[in-house]
Design a protein that fits this description.
The protein has one helix spanning 10-21, and strands at 3-4, 35-36. By secondary structure, the protein is largely without helices or strands.
Protein backbone atom coordinates (compact mmCIF):
# COMPACT_ATOMS: atom_id res chain seq x y z
CA UNK A 1 0.00 0.00 0.00
CA UNK A 2 1.36 3.41 -0.96
CA UNK A 3 1.51 6.37 1.38
CA UNK A 4 0.01 9.54 0.01
CA UNK A 5 2.60 12.27 -0.37
CA UNK A 6 1.52 15.87 -0.30
CA UNK A 7 2.91 17.04 -3.63
CA UNK A 8 3.58 20.43 -2.02
CA UNK A 9 6.32 18.68 0.01
CA UNK A 10 8.06 17.31 -3.08
CA UNK A 11 10.12 20.46 -3.91
CA UNK A 12 11.46 20.53 -0.34
CA UNK A 13 12.35 16.82 -0.45
CA UNK A 14 14.12 17.31 -3.79
CA UNK A 15 15.94 20.39 -2.47
CA UNK A 16 17.19 18.57 0.62
CA UNK A 17 18.29 15.69 -1.60
CA UNK A 18 20.36 18.10 -3.74
CA UNK A 19 22.09 19.31 -0.60
CA UNK A 20 22.75 15.70 0.47
CA UNK A 21 24.31 14.98 -2.93
CA UNK A 22 26.93 17.69 -2.35
CA UNK A 23 27.60 16.53 1.24
CA UNK A 24 25.88 19.53 2.81
CA UNK A 25 25.09 18.55 6.43
CA UNK A 26 21.67 20.23 6.20
CA UNK A 27 20.59 17.91 3.40
CA UNK A 28 19.17 14.39 3.50
CA UNK A 29 18.73 11.57 1.04
CA UNK A 30 15.30 11.47 -0.62
CA UNK A 31 13.39 8.57 0.89
CA UNK A 32 10.20 8.10 -1.10
CA UNK A 33 9.73 4.45 -0.15
CA UNK A 34 6.18 3.32 -0.91
CA UNK A 35 4.98 6.83 -1.71
CA UNK A 36 2.20 7.52 -4.20
CA UNK A 37 3.81 9.68 -6.89
CA UNK A 38 1.45 8.60 -9.66
CA UNK A 39 1.28 11.21 -12.38
CA UNK A 40 3.97 13.36 -10.71
CA UNK A 41 6.06 15.73 -12.84
CA UNK A 42 9.65 14.83 -12.06
CA UNK A 43 11.03 15.99 -15.40
CA UNK A 44 14.82 16.37 -15.20
CA UNK A 45 14.78 15.78 -11.43
CA UNK A 46 18.08 14.72 -9.87
CA UNK A 47 17.20 11.66 -7.81
CA UNK A 48 20.67 10.16 -7.93
CA UNK A 49 20.81 7.37 -5.29
CA UNK A 50 17.30 8.18 -3.99
CA UNK A 51 15.14 5.50 -2.39
CA UNK A 52 12.00 5.01 -4.49
CA UNK A 53 11.49 1.35 -3.68
CA UNK A 54 7.86 0.23 -3.83
CA UNK A 55 6.81 3.76 -4.87
CA UNK A 56 3.85 4.21 -7.18
CA UNK A 57 5.12 6.20 -10.16
CA UNK A 58 2.43 5.04 -12.57
CA UNK A 59 2.13 7.56 -15.40
CA UNK A 60 4.76 9.85 -13.83
CA UNK A 61 6.88 12.07 -16.09
CA UNK A 62 10.56 11.46 -15.38
CA UNK A 63 11.86 12.54 -18.78
CA UNK A 64 15.56 13.39 -18.58
CA UNK A 65 15.72 12.62 -14.84
CA UNK A 66 18.90 11.38 -13.16
CA UNK A 67 18.17 8.19 -11.22
CA UNK A 68 21.73 6.88 -11.24
CA UNK A 69 22.09 4.22 -8.54
CA UNK A 70 18.53 4.81 -7.29
CA UNK A 71 16.62 2.06 -5.51
CA UNK A 72 13.43 1.37 -7.47
CA UNK A 73 12.91 -2.19 -6.24
CA UNK A 74 9.28 -3.18 -6.78
CA UNK A 75 8.33 0.30 -7.99
CA UNK A 76 5.26 0.74 -10.19
CA UNK A 77 6.38 2.58 -13.32
CA UNK A 78 3.59 1.36 -15.58
CA UNK A 79 3.13 3.83 -18.40
CA UNK A 80 5.76 6.19 -16.98
CA UNK A 81 7.66 8.57 -19.25
CA UNK A 82 11.33 7.70 -18.80
CA UNK A 83 12.66 9.02 -22.09
CA UNK A 84 16.34 9.93 -21.83
CA UNK A 85 16.44 9.03 -18.14
CA UNK A 86 19.69 7.94 -16.48
CA UNK A 87 19.01 4.65 -14.68
CA UNK A 88 22.60 3.41 -14.82
CA UNK A 89 23.37 1.12 -11.88
CA UNK A 90 19.81 1.56 -10.55
CA UNK A 91 18.04 -1.34 -8.85
CA UNK A 92 14.80 -2.05 -10.70
CA UNK A 93 14.41 -5.60 -9.42
CA UNK A 94 10.77 -6.62 -9.64
CA UNK A 95 9.75 -3.20 -10.96
CA UNK A 96 6.67 -2.87 -13.13
CA UNK A 97 7.65 -1.05 -16.33
CA UNK A 98 4.95 -2.38 -18.67
CA UNK A 99 4.25 0.13 -21.43
CA UNK A 100 6.87 2.56 -20.10
CA UNK A 101 8.63 4.94 -22.49
CA UNK A 102 12.35 4.22 -22.06
CA UNK A 103 13.46 5.63 -25.42
CA UNK A 104 17.17 6.53 -25.27
CA UNK A 105 17.31 5.64 -21.56
CA UNK A 106 20.62 4.71 -19.95
CA UNK A 107 20.17 1.38 -18.16
CA UNK A 108 23.84 0.37 -18.22
CA UNK A 109 24.61 -1.84 -15.25
CA UNK A 110 21.01 -1.64 -13.99
CA UNK A 111 19.52 -4.53 -12.02
CA UNK A 112 16.35 -5.63 -13.79
CA UNK A 113 15.93 -9.05 -12.16
CA UNK A 114 12.30 -10.07 -12.59
CA UNK A 115 11.26 -6.66 -13.91
CA UNK A 116 8.16 -6.50 -16.11
CA UNK A 117 9.04 -4.61 -19.30
CA UNK A 118 6.11 -5.99 -21.30
CA UNK A 119 5.43 -3.68 -24.23
CA UNK A 120 7.97 -1.11 -23.01
CA UNK A 121 9.58 1.15 -25.60
CA UNK A 122 13.34 0.63 -25.25
CA UNK A 123 14.30 2.09 -28.61
CA UNK A 124 17.95 3.20 -28.53
CA UNK A 125 18.17 2.32 -24.82
CA UNK A 126 21.59 1.47 -23.44
CA UNK A 127 21.40 -1.89 -21.66
CA UNK A 128 25.08 -2.86 -21.67
CA UNK A 129 26.00 -4.74 -18.49
CA UNK A 130 22.35 -4.69 -17.35
CA UNK A 131 21.22 -7.74 -15.38
CA UNK A 132 18.10 -9.01 -17.14
CA UNK A 133 17.70 -12.42 -15.51
CA UNK A 134 13.98 -13.20 -15.25
CA UNK A 135 12.97 -9.88 -16.84
CA UNK A 136 9.89 -10.01 -19.06
CA UNK A 137 10.57 -8.22 -22.36
CA UNK A 138 7.59 -9.64 -24.26
CA UNK A 139 6.49 -7.15 -26.91
CA UNK A 140 9.17 -4.63 -25.92
CA UNK A 141 10.58 -2.44 -28.67
CA UNK A 142 14.35 -3.02 -28.67
CA UNK A 143 15.09 -1.27 -31.98
CA UNK A 144 18.63 0.11 -31.85
CA UNK A 145 19.03 -0.85 -28.17
CA UNK A 146 22.49 -1.79 -26.94
CA UNK A 147 21.97 -5.14 -25.21
CA UNK A 148 24.22 -6.99 -22.74
CA UNK A 149 26.86 -9.20 -24.34
CA UNK A 150 25.45 -12.64 -25.04
CA UNK A 151 21.81 -11.52 -24.68
CA UNK A 152 19.55 -13.24 -27.16
CA UNK A 153 16.25 -11.71 -28.19
Amino acid sequence: MSDLLDMNDLPEILGLHQLWLVDDPTGCRANLYGMDLSGADLTRANLNEANLSWANLEGADLEGANLYGANLTGANLIGAILEGVNLACADLSGAKLAGANLVDANLEGAYLYGADLTGADLEWAKLSWARLSGANLDGANLTGATLPEGWEQ
